[in-house]
Amino acid sequence: MRKIYFLMLSMLCSLAVTANAQTLLDEDFEHTQSDVATTQMPDGWTAVTSYTGSHKGYRWTISKNSTANSTMSGYYYAYCDAPTYDKGDNDGIGPRKDYLITPELKLDNTYQLAFDWEAAAAACLNDRAMTLQVAIIDMANPSDTTVIFDIQNEEDVRNSGVPADPYGSYMWQNWAIHNSKIDLDAYQGKTIKIAFIYNMLKKVANVVYLDNVSVKYHQALTGPIAELDQTRYEMPEMYIGEKRYSEAIQLKNVGKKGLKVTGYDAPDCITIPGDFSKVDLGINETTTFQVAYKASLTSPAECDVVLHTNGGDVTLHVVANKQAVPDGYALELFEGEQFPPAGWKSTDFSTSVYAIEGDKSAYSGASLTDCYLETPRLDLSKADGPKKFMFTYYSMFSGEEVPYNDLSVWASTDGGETYTDSLWLGDYTKTDTLINVEIDLSKYNTDNLRLRFKNSAVTYSSETGVDEWTTYLIDRVLLPNLYGSESVPTSCEVEAPKQGETDVFIKNVQFKWREAQFAEGYKIYIGKKNGEFNVVNGADCGTATSYKLAQAEYGTTYYWKVVPYNSVGDATDCPVWSFSTQADHSVSTFPWIETFDDEKFAPLGWSVENASLTTWSRTNSHTFAGEGSVVAYSNKMEQTAYLTSPDISVPATGKYQLSFWWGNQRPVSLINDKTKLHVNNTTAEDGIDAAFMDVYVDGEWQQVKLISNNVEADGNCYWAYETLDLTPYAGKVIALRWRYIAHNYSKSRGAALDNVKIEAATADVSFSADGWDAYKVNYGEKEVSPTFAITNLGSESVSISSVNFGTEYFTTTLANGDELKPASSKQFTITAQASLAAESTDLSDNMTVTFSDGTAATFPVSAVALGSDIHYFGFERDATGEVPSGFTGINADGTASLKISFWTFPNNGGLLSFFVLNDSECYNSLKEPHGSQSLMTRCNSNGAFDDWLVSPLYTATDKSKLEFDARTWESVNSVMPAKGPKVNVYVSETSATDRSTFKQVGTTTELGLFNPAEGWTHLTYDLSAYAGKKVYVAIQSVATESLGGFYDNVEFKHFVKGLKGDINGDGVLNTTDVTALIAHLLGLGSYSNSLCDVNGDGRVNNSDVTALINLVLAQ
Q: Domains in the chain, start-ordered, CATH in brackets?
């Protein structure tokens, strides 16, 4: 229990309310005798506050509405307020608590507290600035007060009967009056007071309102109680064959929390869609459901639907007004799987789940061309036959004025060749209402009449966009006297295999056709010669419109037809279709691999069986490797899609292994980690979705692998390497199958597959990269590679016997004895050590790794070891969002950079000059010449910037140069690009920060638009004029109409860094530098080799100590 402690005991004494009353308290504050806000409480009520100021609203106060019910109900209500911002005078500042206390109440029975309240949800729930609490003061021990309700506590709020915010913004609705009811059964037999606590948790807060406080007798609740908002529902008129849904029926829990529905009883004509198993209602919570009634000749006109709950049964009495379809008419409800239905034709109409009746309706929305839905042929040649056309439609309009597109009905007397008769035009002003239409066709005396719905086209303008439009739903169509209804069926149309289709997979060949008009069933005929149907000779498929042939032959042409039939007889003139199967693509030669790089899917020899909304398909986006990967995805629960390999003849001798890469995500969300091998550790499904791998052997499918939610500890999902030992299948013909199923399509992740491979079981070792180029390494320094991996994708363990380089300039963390188990990897790095030479040197080498099985692998490495007077900066190890280490950045205009949406570098939008940027932070926008980090300058909100990058102090020589690469942000492919920045180079002999001391070197370069085909612009500046001088070199990037620029590979050639002999870098040449150099030689200190090589011979040894002593003595 939550406890607070009250000190003001003297405020708690008052007379108790009379015992045995049905109502102990009923305070609506309407008896307040004041026309202005007052702190005078009703008789018996007490207000306790720590506020000492004069603002009435900063303690519990009774206020009056200017008009009834404008704030709370009636005219009067209680409230407690606080300042919403810090005014600086400390008036009303929190934290603090204010108490509004009821008279003393003797609970001689079971009672319930009820009250209305209202509060600012943002301040209360988001800012946690204040809350309203309810506490019980037990008069037997009034210093001990128990909080029983808090509007910040969702359980308290729901249990009191307050529903969730219908807008989903907060836990409860903002600025709405809420009524809470709290049982006081636990305090029966006690004398209590109730305290309403305005608990201000921060310095500033907002107001809370209180009204209509009552304590009344109520029957103690022992459990949930179910209640329907109506007990009788009358369905609208319906024809036999129709299915109608009720409006939403509300189920409410008027008892204790935890109302569950355990099932329902109803006749077969009644169904209730949805999942009652998820219903778990708190106090006063509700849920809604619909009842569906399917009318038939035998369905009862009245029936009861009984919902069983743990809070008692509730009954809904359903009344159905059903009637027979009029004689001579056919009813079309568009409920079938096929659209358009048999005999109908459609141009840009389809079916919608927004149904007028049942589960589907025909619909058409906006189109730049007219949309049509044509009826079957009608026979109106009999004078006494039916002559009316009837339907129901609905205009689903969400625009502001009126829709531009019209719905109309037209007639054709030449079998649909031309539609010249306009029969009906809908009223475009009648939207969002069901309209029944009846059209008189008595003027027609023909057996070749067709009717057509027309949804007229809308127009599009580049200035105004598309006209306002509506979606039309059409349903419950009554057609008079269908032509041919008393004769044999019409023939049907092919769906699969298509006429002339080639390379059809031979297993489980699916034959599909469209429904034929008036058909009661179908017979299928299949043969290898036209006219000779000896494979399947008239198999009766019943009403099914598909047939599966378990096994066909490779490389064979098949002929087939479908003959619809009814009680009159068989259809005539049924077409014969043909297709050919693929050649034999079974696998018997190894190694074998399927990369899915070919655009044809499924690959020859493979088969794919997709469900309506669960599919396997090929993608060329974010593939694992190569041009393609396979992806599975679902938009429907509990559907399975299958991807099956060709037959595979596993050799009887030798050991073979199957391997493949997969993941429980679509490829775009899977990471292909080149530095580490990730394997699948799934042991069970997670209830959302999963992929499976099965083997077909000995006449049955056996599940052997499963992947579900392969997210690793770092929160990422990687392509996982999977293997299967094929030894149990030696000498057998098998097939492989990958299945995907979603159990929760809204959360389903999908699945991906690539590089399915079978090979002899050996060690299979490879590197994660083709080699490493360290690029430029400064004199006497080291460059460490990115992390690489050496991976064993085979089925046998192997260990490293030796690791060797051809030169002394490279080393690695790989070591003799390192073991590579099957399906494992080992990470390693390589270090390039620059040659201690005065001139730059190209280094090229190979890392050769030999293994315990006698095999070897090589890894090429290279670097450029720079001379002692060259200083290169690639910025690869500098912190992003900052000026690179060793440089000075100047934001000359003093303005903040314009924030770049969706880029993730630190200090985005801050006061930046030149700053480091990584490709991963900017969607790989850099396209830099080397590495993955560069410098950037970014404009302010006006498209301008003036940024400087100033070097460390160097001593120039007669060969000094500055070189770097640059590009503008926008490219030749940009739409309406801004200009590029201007680049200048300056030199100062005195200051790294005083721009007035800098002088320009060379000319101004204005960067043009970046052309990816040409690469970055390389700039060179001659600084030999400053030979012998100590200088700071600055690069300026300036623009008045530019988004920004990128800079990289800054190289100071032929400069001496700092003061020669200043080993410790303190700017002074003295004996402390001699000490530092000796410590460096003894390994007791670490200083730059370029500084320690005092005599410039490319080596650091005792001769440099002698040279340094001479420099010190010469001062």
A: 2-217 (2.60.120.200), 226-323 (2.60.40.10), 329-480 (2.60.120.260), 494-581 (2.60.40.10), 592-760 (2.60.120.200), 765-865 (2.60.40.10), 870-1057 (2.60.120.200), 1071-1114 (no CATH)
